[in-house]
Amino acid sequence: MDFLREWIYTPPTFVVGVFAAIMIVTYVLIMTERFHKTLVAMGGAVTTVIAGKYFEIAYDWVPLVDAFLAWIQGDVPRLKPLLFTSEQVLTEMVDWQTIVIVISLVIITTAASKSGLFEYICVKVVKRSGGDLGRLFIYLCLLSFALTALIGNDSAFIVVSALTLTLTHAIGIDPRPYILGEVFVMNAAGASTLVGSFVNILVSARFNLDPGYFLSYVHFVALGAPFAVACSVIAVFVIRRAFKDEFLIPEESEIMVMKKRVLALDEYSLIEDVTLFRRISVLLILTVVGFIIAGSFNIPLYIVVALSAFAFLILSGVDPEKTLHEVDWGLVVFLVSIFIVVEGLHSTGLLESLGKTLGSLTAGNMPATIFLVMTLSGVLSGIMDNVSVTSALLYVMPPLSLNAMVLDKTVVWALIYGANSGASMTPIGGIPNLIAFSLLERDGRPVTWKSFIKFGVPLCIMFFLLGTGMLYVYATMLGWTSANLEFMLKITSEYNAIIGLETS
User: Fold this and answer.
1) Three-class SS of 427-453
2) CA 197 to CA 102: how far, in whole Å?
């Protein structure tokens, strides 16, 4: 009777195929960029809702039959649909915590950018280079890392790239090595803090900053920042070596001209309102402190971020209506739509089956499991949007972890490492990549797919290998490897019990 009840709740192959096709078509169209990704995601979400409603009506007999079988069995009926109801689409299928966090962070960044704080920091750092091009490249990369850790890689790249183009035009040098270095550093730096990328926000919100998963702001600094720093150093070394001739200034007279141009930059002219400048600086510091406190006391992140966004709207002195108008609502619609598409496929059980299959490939081997997850998430993030990839893989990770006999926290961190660093593989792997391509093309110095991949693929391979080694060391130090022994003992005991029954 239990088998029959399970069978009627198993979606037919046709049903699974419909939702798999919706997700595949949606993700392929996002990857090809023939249409705006928000429109594509919305189309996928609408199709998912329509298909869900059709199957809800077509299989409305499932809960009735289950109730009848439960009555015969003397058990409690499930009273749930085969997949999902129309009411569940917005109440359960959309991760509203993540949406609130994303909107709040965009409000904070938008309001803070009006003060001239980020531009002030940029010019201050650039002037320290003194006109030395090699030093300027390193300082811009350091600045890229710091701003990514503070406000996220997407917002940080908009600020730094604008300054870089202005600076390279004023000096009269090729902006490509600087922009490429910033892209690779920012993608790697995305793993450094909780707000470094939308990938981190998605993962952390899904687990509600559970201390057991080491996903608080402090834990990101401890586990994510060292990996981000190591990858950034590799990227800086590779780009600087590849463009070494671009950083040479043969004549002493040119050096003096460049020094004068750089030192002539006035960072204080960027501050229109000193009071606003100071107020924004204090609010940013308090926001970071709030993230740390939230992780320490297990306070939901969306509460802290929403309060911070409210404080920025009230205290920053910037027109709230104007700030809200500048929020990237297309991103919000994109995320909501992707949640619906992924949840639609998840309701069929296909993602869970995929996780079990992948986990069985590396059963009992932690380094292999880490490398598998990093490579899978990294490569998919390189050819598609890493936010879309992470949304889907979050459902694959639990069964993969179970079948691989590796603690789920290890697998989750491998996903964070892979999705962030893998964005550097191709020009469409992340928002900074796309912005960089557009800016350089408009500047008359385009970067081809071939030249980008020539750097991106080898870098990502090194990132995956490095991440595997570092995460394995972390897992060993933190005692996460003990899960293998627990899994093996459990499986061995169950196997012995089965053998014993058969023997008897």
Assistant:
1) CCCCHHHHHHHHHHHHCCCCCCHHHHH
2) 10
Single-letter amino acid code for the residue at 312: F
In terms of domains, do 157 and 259 share one? yes
Judge whether residue 179 has pLDDT over 90.
yes
Residue 483 lies in a domain: yes
How far is CA 4 from its chain centroid?
41
Pair of tokens at residue 103: 């909107």
Eight-state DSSP code of residue 406: -
Residues 269 and 183 in one domain: yes
Looking at residue 222, what DSSP letter applies? I
C-alpha distances out from residue 442 to 137, 171, 298, 435, 446, Å: 22, 18, 46, 11, 8
Length of the chain in terms of residues written: 504
Domain that holds residue 165: 96-206+215-328
State the residue for tokens 């992140």. 301
214-232 pLDDT, tens digit each: 888 888 999 999 999 999 9
Within 10 Å of residue 423's Cβ, how many Cβ atoms?
33
Q: Tell me phi and psi for residue 246, to 5 degrees.
A: -70, -20
Extract the tokens encoding 224: 């994510």
Is the model's pLDDT at 274 over the cut of 80? Answer: no
Q: How far is CA 143 from the centre of its chain?
A: 20
CA 71 → CA 3, 247, 329, distances in Å?
A: 15, 79, 49
| Helices and strands (H, E) in the chain, number of each type | 25, 0
